[in-house]
Design goal:
By secondary structure, this protein is an alpha/beta fold. About 30% of the residues lie in helices and about 15% in strands. The protein is built from eleven helices and 15 strands. It has an eleven-stranded mixed sheet with strand order 1-8-2-3-7-4-6-5-9-10-11, with helices on both faces. The chain has a four-stranded parallel sheet with strand order 12-15-13-14, with helices on both faces. The chain starts with a strand and ends in a 6-residue tail after the last helix. The structure holds adenosine monophosphate and magnesium ion. The site of magnesium ion has 3 residues, from loops.
Amino acid sequence: MDTLYFNAVKQSEAGTKLGGGVIRAGGLVAFPTETVYGLGANGLDGAAVNRIFEAKGRPNDNPLILHIAKKSDLKELWKSVPEKARLLMDEFWPGPLTMVYLKSSRVPGEVSAGLDTVAVRMPANRTALALIRAAGVPIAAPSANLSGKPSPTSAEHVIEDMDGKIDVIIDGGSCAIGVESTVVSLMGGEVTILRPGGITREMLEAVVGPVSLSPAVLAPLKQGEAAPSPGMKYKHYAPDAEVIVGTGAPGDIAAKLIAEYEKREAGGQSCIIFATEETRRFYKGKRYVIIGERKNPITLCESLFAQFRANEGRADVILCEALPEADMGLAYMNRLLRSAGFKTI
Ligand code: AMP
Ligand code: MG
């Protein structure tokens, strides 16, 4: 199929109007959000939702997030709205927070991958909200990449993975946050982080008190262990190179990465280091790119996936620095460790 392309700035209304019609009619539209690009379909149409799984090659036991443009639409999609969910949506919607709770009968099983819960979020992006309004239905959307690849943070990334496979791509420039939304479960009266993101644990706790962290956020599932969130089971966010994470204090990390670099290069493998402003001086004479500032982890989140894609084919091994797992550092470490298949030194 020929994929239609719209620029969200120059052709804003045309893109969202046509895109909304395509979604209502059962087609697929990629669109920008503040986190990463989404691949959207009519969230109330099981057959349309199945096309998302086909286009991405996504395992069909991995459920999708429903995107809405009005807070009041949530009650149509859930059995009821727990008090903590109300508090969280008043504080953080529109924004990078996805909430999981018991689904209503309106939500097709294809969206929730057969679970009795469904994930919902209201994105903070003008184009995304206009598209949802134009569609007139909740939009089911995972990230608009081929399954297993790094999430797309620009329309060029979406074109790389999806051109010719979907109906429309709306280009809204680069995504501000660059990692997917925070996913929390509201089940059992508790708030549990299933995936860290732009709304941090600290921010959630300031609104609802103690928030727990699913152990699978920073460690691989044990063999046979059930995944609290199906996405945790899969290799994720991975570039075509081997990714290795150096841990410890910044100076120790650099020493470990340099030792690994020299060992691998001596063995005939090409390496690149994902350095930071604070640590670049350690890597003189080595091949490195600066991907952001350690003191400002959101800058690292913003560029991690784009740098994975930009360095595809340039190195056999990508050597990365661990960050403390607080604030946005938690989301960064979750994505990095998954990209590395939890390989640390
Ligand atoms: P993606 O849209 O590709 O960013 O992935 C959505 C993430 O939300 C995946 O990790 C899913 O496993 C998770 N998710 C979606 N729905 C649910 C649900 N009902 N229960 C638990 N996790 C969910
Ligand atoms: Mg994804």
